[in-house]
Design brief:
Layout lengths: L1 E6 L6 E6 L8 E10 L10 E4 L3 E6 L7 E5 L9 E3 L11 E2 L6 E6 L34
Parallel strand pairs: 3-6
Antiparallel strand pairs: 1-2, 3-5, 4-9, 5-8, 7-9
């Protein structure tokens, strides 16, 4: 079983693979990827789809481990709709998900308004002095 793959950061060529020998008759814990498919009707209402988790831990026999969980986001019809662990489709007799059933995987949220630009502070100057321009040096006081 492959547990980790290291790739060259520039060429993306595989430089190392960690393999794990498993007993096919003993259950193991593994992280399984979550793949999103479909289009959400909530996006037409201005919602943004947020992926809360992209992997989930399961326990199963090595031969029963799913390759990935496929989640159809077309179930997100309105803003604030969400898909939880309980909504995952898998063989519950062979695979045990090690997360709470009410844990959120994907949700549709209203986009947050952009933060307003911070107001530039007025530079207080002594009476009669003009404010210094950017890049202009102040003359030093003579002693």
């Amino acid at each position: 079983m492959i547990t980790d793959v290291q790739a060259d950061p520039i060429s993306q060529r595989v430089i190392h693979v960690d393999l794990r020998q498993v007993n096919l008759k003993e259950k193991i814990n593994a992280m399984i990827d979550i793949e999103l498919t479909g289009e959400s009707p909530a996006e037409d209402q201005g919602a943004v789809i947020i992926t809360v988790r992209d992997q989930i831990e399961v326990e199963a026999l090595p031969t029963d481990l799913p390759e990935k969980f496929v989640v159809d986001i077309s179930a997100l019809k309105e803003v604030e709709d969400m898909i939880t662990v309980a909504d995952l489709q898998y063989d519950k007799s062979k695979v045990e998900v090690l997360a709470e059933p009410d844990e959120v995987l994907v949700k549709a949220e209203q986009p947050q308004a952009a933060e307003p630009e911070p107001e530039t502070a007025e530079v207080e100057t002594a009476e009669g002095e003009a404010p210094a321009e950017a890049g202009e040096e102040k003359p030093e006081a003579e002693a």
